[in-house]
Amino acid sequence: MEGYLLWSAEVEQARRLARRFTDELPWLTTAQREDVERVYAADRAAASRAMLMRVSERATELRGEYSERYRRLRARCVAAAVVCAGTAGGACTVVTYLAR
Questions:
Q1: What is the DSSP code (8-state) at residue 28?
Q2: What's the pLDDT score for residue 97?
Q3: Running DSSP on this structure, what letter comes out for residue 22?
Q4: Residue pair 36/21 in contact by the 8 Å Cβ criterion
């Protein structure tokens, strides 16, 4: 739903910008004004769609990169915990052996 609302707002913004652009050209006839607004809005929507696709692709790439980093960090933390547990166990064994 959020994507639909975002896209609707983007299309409406393109229409407003097209109207503002044609307001700067008072010599246009009504038909010309409508054509320019239609083409301008379509061009703006195409540019917005391309930008959104690039952002979406980059977000997917980042998700993969961060997932890999998280996996490596988790493996290092588990390895460190195992080493610490082994070291603590070994130290307890040495202390117990020496205490006898």
A1: S
A2: 86
A3: H
A4: yes
Q: Where are the beta strands (DSSP E) in the chain?
A: none
How much is the pTM?
0.63
Give CA–CA dist 43/35, Å, rounded: 12
- The CA-to-CA distance between both ends of the chain, in Å, stands at 71
CB half-sphere exposure, 6, CA atoms < 13 A: 6
* CB-based contact 55:74 (threshold 8 Å): no
Residues 14, 44: contact at Cβ < 8 Å? yes
How would residue 6 be classed by pLDDT, with cut points 50, 70 and 90? confident
Query: What are the boundaries of each domain within the chain?
Result: 2-99
Contact between 83 and 49 under an 8 Å Cβ cutoff? The reply is no
Instruction: Please tell me the distance from the alpha carbon of residue 77 to that of residue 68, in angstroms, as a whole number.
Output: 14
Residue written as tokens 């301008």? 40
